[in-house]
Predict the 3D structure of the following.
Amino acid sequence: QSTLSETAFLMACGKAQDPGLSLDPYASLWLTPEGINYAEDFAQNVIPLAAHLFCLRGRYIAEQLLAFEKKHPHFTLINVGSGLTSYQFILSHGTTTHELDQTHVLDFRSQRIKENTDKGLLPKRNIHFHPVNLNSASGLDQFREILNQITNPCFVLFEGIVTYLEKPLARISHRSDFLT
């Protein structure tokens, strides 16, 4: 049975196989031996072309973010279910990022970001980590509070998380009345 962290590694492994296609030159920084084994097993037993699909999905999102940045040079990226993405690192340093995910994913992620930034492998970025469970009322309140505090243009990314949300909560991604 897969967990959120396994699927996050799966995406990163796929994108790392072809950084030119995925537009993610940093994907390999998230890899672990366990994550690589999971991705190889997935490719052998589930979807042989998964890496290419993940690259294309990542490229599409990266292109959308870069186009948004051209229109709004100092915007806020809210990455809901951030997993092990690298989008904020291909954007300019003027972008603020809020990452929402489970505590264990954000712990791993923040540690890797610090290590790789200290080594000069990742550019420094303004990132705020928010451990949150969007399947709870308090998690939704926390998400709403983050959104309500943002005054500049905002790009909210729900990449892959909808499969982990309970059905009624998955509908918030398109509801303007979610904000107060």
